[in-house]
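Journal club side-thread
Mid-discussion, someone asked how the predicted structure for our own chain would compare to the paper's figures. Pasting it here so we can look after the session.
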Amino acid sequence: MDGSWVPLIVIGGIVIMVVAVMLGVVGRTAAQAAARKREADSDALHTDRYRQLAEECAIGLRHTAQELGKLTERVAAIEKLLRDVGE
């Protein structure tokens, strides 16, 4: 066997190393993209849940305000009744 195979083996080794590095870079980039997608999906889910909670709180506050208005009317009626009875 003469030495003509040595350069081919060296070039083949270099090509294999370059391909391995490229696969590593592509794999890492794909993993980072998947992680960003999961984070974005999680953020979207939490944002939706927060929006729903905010809507429920707003509905609760409106209901509480209505009940407080009714209570104020009742207290005013009781005060008027007490004033009328005291006269």
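Post-session note: Residues 54 and 60 are 10 Å apart (CA to CA).
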